[in-house]
Amino acid sequence: MTAKYFKYLLEFKRPSGTSRGVLHEKETFILEISKDGKKGTGECAIFRGLSFDDRPDYEEKLQWLCENINQDSELLKEELKEFPSLWFGYEQAILNLKHGENLYFPSEFTEGKNSIVINGLIWMGDINYMEEQIQDKLEQGFHCIKLKIGVDWESEHEVLQKLRKKFSKDTLELRVDANGGFNKEKAKLVLQQLADLNIHSIEQPIKAGNWNHMAELCAETPTPIALDEELIGIIDFNEKKKLLETIKPQYIILKPALVGGFSGSDEWIALAEEQNIGWWITSALESNIGLNAIAQYTFTKENPMPQGLGTGSLFVNNFESVLELRNELLWFKI
Question: 9 pairs with which residues across the strands?
Answer without folding.
Answer: 27
